[in-house]
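Fill in residues.
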């Protein structure tokens, strides 16, 4: 039987929650060896081991900070990636949301798993200690997950009026970055929509100019030679493809430790390009959790992928023959393994 072509999508910050505790339990030896290596690095830095964080009762002030959340999410994604049955699935491209770009670099072979930990730990700590501002998330879709043009235009106008920035294009949501005064104005100005506008706790103004002070420190922390050409094509936060055959390693370094830190991350474009360029049979979402399930579906609907036009159709299709396979959902995890 021919392998199914799949795109793998890596999660960003906020994906490890109370519901995903103990995600790293029952590891196979080949996966456990990586977690042990990460734990040794944590111990050398006087930080709580990832395996202990995962076992401990979830506390937002501990588990959601950059220095803990970032490597914890990375470890969970490494586990899921290694559990994908490679005899059934041919991974044709990898992309990620925000911090998920760093995970994609490691899983795609552009950096080693150990250097992936170093990069993710360093960036999580840097943005925690030296980042500024925060992020708000707000929907620009209707109840059927179709883009509402009027709502989108209103949000973009309020972003401009408040002197804040687009941080992430996230399917049917816009993540807004800014200093706290700007965000406070938006929290009052944007129309209430269920729990939105919602300020994401423990986040700085990622992917905006407010993080420009982090760039020099990040670049001084890593040598360009840690980057290689990926073994699997990567799609970045602009929709650019980094190919195993043509990647310029210096440009990959500059993008990762420069451009994407201070410029908007277009997750929607990365999914669109991955779909249209690699034509997958399925999309596999790595855990922890399933935070990207909705945004990915909203991109599918926006581009009428597989003639998909609405949330109700997506839900029905997922029940009958799922196109999106989330490893954070037990039933779908079983299909992937």
């Amino acid at each position: 039987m021919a392998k199914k072509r799949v795109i793998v999508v890596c999660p960003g910050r906020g994906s490890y929650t109370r519901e995903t505790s103990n995600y790293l339990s029952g590891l196979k030896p080949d996966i456990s060896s990586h977690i042990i290596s990460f734990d040794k690095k944590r111990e050398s830095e006087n930080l709580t081991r990832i395996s202990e964080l995962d076992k401990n009762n979830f506390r937002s002030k501990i588990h959601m900070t950059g220095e803990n959340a970032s490597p914890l999410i990375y470890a969970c994604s490494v586990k899921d990636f290694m559990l994908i049955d490679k005899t059934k699935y041919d991974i044709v491209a990898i992309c990620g949301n925000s911090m998920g770009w760093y995970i994609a670099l490691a899983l795609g072979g552009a950096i080693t798993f150990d250097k992936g930990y170093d990069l993710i730990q360093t960036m999580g700590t840097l943005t925690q200690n030296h980042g500024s501002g925060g992020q708000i998330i707000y929907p620009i879709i209707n109840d059927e997950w179709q883009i509402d043009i009027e709502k989108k235009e209103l949000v973009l106008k309020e972003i401009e009026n408040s002197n804040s920035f687009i941080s992430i294009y996230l399917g049917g949501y816009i993540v807004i970055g800014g200093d706290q005064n700007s965000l406070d104005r938006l929290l009052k100005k944007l129309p209430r929509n269920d729990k939105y506008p919602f300020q994401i706790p423990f986040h700085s103004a990622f992917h905006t100019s407010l993080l420009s002070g982090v760039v020099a420190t990040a670049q001084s922390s890593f040598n360009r030679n840690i980057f290689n050409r990926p073994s699997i094509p990567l799609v970045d936060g602009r929709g650019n493809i980094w190919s195993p055959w043509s990647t310029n390693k210096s440009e990959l370094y500059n993008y990762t430790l420069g451009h994407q830190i201070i410029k908007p991350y277009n997750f929607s474009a990365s999914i669109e390009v991955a779909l249209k360029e690699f034509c997958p049979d399925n999309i596999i979402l790595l855990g922890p959790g399933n935070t990207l399930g909705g945004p990915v579906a909203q991109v599918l609907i926006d581009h009428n992928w597989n003639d998909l036009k609405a949330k109700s159709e997506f839900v029905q299709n997922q029940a009958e023959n799922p196109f999106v396979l989330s490893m954070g959902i037990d039933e779908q995890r079983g299909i992937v393994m």
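Residues 4-131+210-262+278-336 form a domain with the Malonyl-Coenzyme A Acyl Carrier Protein; domain 2 fold (CATH 3.40.366.10).
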